[in-house]
């Protein structure tokens, strides 16, 4: 009896959803900072575990939250008309900012390992994280070359665009999976002594587990927002370009 | 000069892609079984770590591979014509099989913890995994009630379908993230003594890290296949039902 209200009921407007995502992203950044400051001894550059603490903060801020913001730029309705270049520059700059924070985040953990004599790159977390960062660097370089430099021919841009869109969502899923495995691993490392063991679920464990779940929710919501057809640039709705743009699942 | 070849070049046919996914899924199952059999002492029902070994095998087989197969049923072109009921029954049965294996996988880890006196449900891995299984049980029950029982009105089915599709992909992403955090955690637990420590990257660590990456690739490819518009049932391409079906990012 209410067949036609169903699409309308699910048709959340983009901007309020985006404001909610922004608040959720800021909450994740605040929580990862609080975790490292309040329970893990704060921050320094001396190669100690206080140097390591930059790693989760920079990764959550760069590779999840700022990356998510960069990915969502073309879903803002204002970007659908007028010159494209300023929006391309904004998208590329936010992604570059995310990339710089990510590289600093890697630097923090390598510096910590090296000063402690711990080998680098042995855990599944590190393999997955490095694969994510390598994909991100290829994504940024190829996006810059194809869409910002003037030399790429139209057919190459059309061919590469769905690949860029597909890897955009994929890299975010991988970075979220890297974050939760890293938080899990860090809690096992840190909460070892008798009164504070992870398995007794002290306040720090509840706090950081909750942070992990919020990062997952943030990632799922950004990927869903990217995939939603009614939030995509309308000029990509012609059957031909739609097939190109969506061909790989973007 | 080659503008029209771009969509065609990306237009992989579904069935060969599906065969590749099937082979990748079987490889993941074979590898998790080999890991537990060859390096972790095999399987038993006595509450020891050999009982725990059922946990990764059942979770990868049920919550990732069989779940992925269930999710892809409606992408088989044969399902697009003729009566829908047999395909609905197949989809629901594969999902039920995945759910049963998942519950047995939970049973294995609870049985192991209880017989060792280890608390349950403290790690981020366990929180994320349990959230995934709870979402999966709601998804199965609501799907059964809305699409297989005859009483749901058409408007309710139309309203619920995009939600079911959205959670279908989301649950798979969460189960993949749960698997990789679990493999990472298990390797830290198991590879502790001097000669075999995880950080020295013994053969077992390389093998299980590779398994984790293959599970990630399997999950990303299934989610991408589900999202690809040209692989969806054509009758959902009318503007109205397409908006409903895709509204939440399916």
Automatic annotation (TrEMBL), chains A, B:
Task: Report keywords, A-Z.
Answer: Electron transport, Endosome, Glycoprotein, Heme, Iron, Lysosome, Membrane, Metal-binding, Oxidoreductase, Translocase, Transmembrane, Transmembrane helix, Transport
EC number(s) stated in the UniProt entry for this protein: 7.2.1.3
Designated name of the protein: Lysosomal membrane ascorbate-dependent ferrireductase CYB561A3
Q: Please give the GO cellular component terms listed in this UniProt entry.
A: late endosome membrane; lysosomal membrane
Localization, per the record, is: Late endosome membrane; Lysosome membrane
**Catalyzes what?**
Fe(3+)(out) + L-ascorbate(in) = monodehydro-L-ascorbate radical(in) + Fe(2+)(out) + H(+)
Name any cofactors this protein relies on.
Answer: heme b
Positions of the region Disordered? 231-250
Under Gene3D superfamilies, the record lists: 1.20.120.1770
Which PROSITE patterns does the annotation name?
A: CYTOCHROME_B561
- State what this protein does: Transmembrane reductase that uses ascorbate as an electron donor in the cytoplasm and transfers electrons across membranes to reduce iron cations Fe(3+) into Fe(2+) in the lumen of the late endosome and lysosome. Reduced iron can then be extruded from the late endosome and lysosome to the cytoplasm by divalent metal-specific transporters. It is therefore most probably involved in endosomal and lysosomal cellular iron homeostasis.
Describe its partners and assembly state. Answer: Homodimer.
In which broad location class does this protein mainly occur, judging by the first location in its UniProt entry?
membrane
Instruction: Give any GO molecular function from the UniProt entry.
Output: metal ion binding
Q: Which Pfam families match?
A: Cytochrom_B561
Tell me where on the tree of life, at the top rank, the source sits: Eukaryota
Task: State whether keyword Oxidoreductase applies.
Answer: yes
What organism is the protein native to? Answer: Passerina amoena (Lazuli bunting)
